[in-house]
Amino acid sequence: MVQLSHNIETNASLLQSAIAGGAAGAFTRAVAQPLDVLKIRFQLQLEPIKHGLNSKYSSMLQALTSIIKEEGIATLWSGHVPAQLLSISYGILQFGTFEKLSYLSQNSDPQFFITHKHWINFCNGSISATIATVASFPFDTVRTRLIAEQKTSKVYKGFLHAFSLMIRLEGPRALFKGLIPTLGQIAPHAGIQFAVYKLFTNNIFNNIPFFQRTVDANTPQSTLFANLLAGSIAGFVAKTSIYPFDLVKKRLQIQGFQRHRQAFGKQMYCNGLFDCVKLTVNNEGYLALFKGYGPSILKAVLVSALHFAAYDEIKYFLLNFSK
Q: Looking at residues 92-102, what average pLDDT do you find?
């Protein structure tokens, strides 16, 4: 059963995998963007996220209410255009590369793949995510800037204006600020995601009839619920493992932009990855490396569940449609 399940996965062509990955990315981004806005606002706040400490944001509900009241509900979808471009391009490259690497791994040595499939899924997930991250990173930086600015005193008119202004005033390298900590987190994050997801769908849920549906007489397939559940678990484990890297990345991405965020409170000025970590720990404590963890983990569970489930559903639809 496991071998047959692996075989149907590799039947998807590179184009089908890319289409499914891009569509899944666009769908999940539209749903989860407000949680991303909350997460980034929390990550960039130097004051403690607690009540009664003169902090701009003190809880998820308070932050949500404050953003809507002061800047409008549309602010919850700030940076949505570059975020969509990020998700679509990332989804196409990540899933397309992962499927291609999986296909090559299985066909080069099927027995070795079966014996070491969890580590191979981890490695393939890490490689595909690294490639996708480098290619789509400028969209991530522009998205962070658009979310970071105060909408009552806007600096950027939109995605294209932010993109061109950053290049003109700060140089092309500004689009890749925070890339090093991102690569430090994305490889293990994606590797863990894919490994955990495949572990549950192909090895655990695959042996439980409740979580199976039949594509044809010989091919078991995990149900939509099983894919959602496996994706949720994968997202939780992966995001918790690498969260501090994500916080440092966001703080590096706004370097040179602090003067436009004075209304949000104190601002951090740092020079690189290690300086950012040192300042964060010295000034805010070790737990500050997990600021924004609440909305982030909610987003990770939701996005990972929807992303993997939507990808598999679209992929299997394309496979059946092409028959």
A: 88
